[in-house]
Write a structure and sequence with these properties.
Belongs to the fucoxanthin chlorophyll protein family. The protein has 238 residues and is mainly α. Helix content is 49%, strand content 2%. Strands 1-2 form a two-stranded antiparallel ribbon. A hairpin with a 4-residue loop joins strand 1 and strand 2. The chain is globular. 29% of the residues are buried.
């Protein structure tokens, strides 16, 4: 469980190579040709265009389909009124998406493996009495030593500082989510492949954010681990 928590907290500061694209004043980077910092067209969203996600509503001014995964969905206006605000929110979305993708894997794995591993090592399990992962709603976070949290948060801080360094070095060539991290070489070299990969990442991330929220609420309401409530997802059928 501690290993999973480490991954999740470090993910707060991490940013993989998959980053959204933009347009207007074209800048050439080592990925696609981008411009994320041009001034928005004041007529954008005022020409009768409708949102793809909400066909009955007008398309938000800044959401013109340029960013990967952009379908014009921003009913609460979180994107802001200028490009800088939009890029800030896109980076926040990417970081939360990556964190959530790790969390939806780490949460059930902890419920499956924490007790057997703890028993084998002669240590107490970190799961709750009913077998759920420690969480704000489930409780159990007090079982984890404070020194451990300090170490993990410090590690996450180091990663975030490195991300800030990349931002400074890249300047306006910096893309939301960029940290020059692609150890497996998954990011394609062609523009179409890059956009497809970025779209997959943001879509999977959005699903993961809803999924981890569902885990937390489900366990808080039913008081049993998700691996027990939906065993067909987590246990072999044979």
């Amino acid at each position: 469980m501690k290993f999973c928590a480490s991954l999740l907290l470090v993910a707060l500061g991490s940013a993989a190579a998959f980053a959204p694209s933009g347009k207007n004043v074209a800048q050439r980077t080592n990925t696609v040709e981008l411009d994320l910092w041009g001034e928005p067209n004041p007529k954008d969203g005022e020409s009768g265009d409708k949102s793809k996600a909400l066909p009955f509503a007008p398309r938000p001014k800044l959401l013109d389909g340029t960013l990967a995964g952009d379908v014009g969905f921003d009913p609460f206006g979180f994107a802001g009124a200028d490009t800088a605000s939009l890029m800030y929110m896109r980076e926040a979305e990417l970081k939360h998406s990556r964190l959530a993708m790790l969390a939806v894997v780490g949460w059930p794995l902890a419920e499956l493996w924490d007790k057997p591993l703890a028993d084998a090592a002669g240590l107490p399990t970190l799961l709750t009495k009913t077998g759920e992962s420690p969480a704000l709603l489930n409780g159990g976070l007090d079982k984890i030593p404070a020194a451990y949290w300090v170490a993990v948060i410090a590690l996450a801080g180091i990663v975030e500082l490195e991300n800030m360094k990349v931002k400074e070095e890249k300047g306006k060539a910096y893309l939301p989510g960029m940290c020059n991290f692609d150890p497996l070489g998954l990011f394609p070299s062609d523009k179409a492949g890059q956009m497809a990969m970025m779209t997959k990442e943001i879509k999977h991330g959005r699903i993961a954010m809803m999924g981890i929220l569902g885990f937390a609420i489900q366990e808080a309401v039913y008081n049993q681990p998700v691996v027990s409530e939906t065993p067909f997802f987590f246990h072999p059928v044979f």
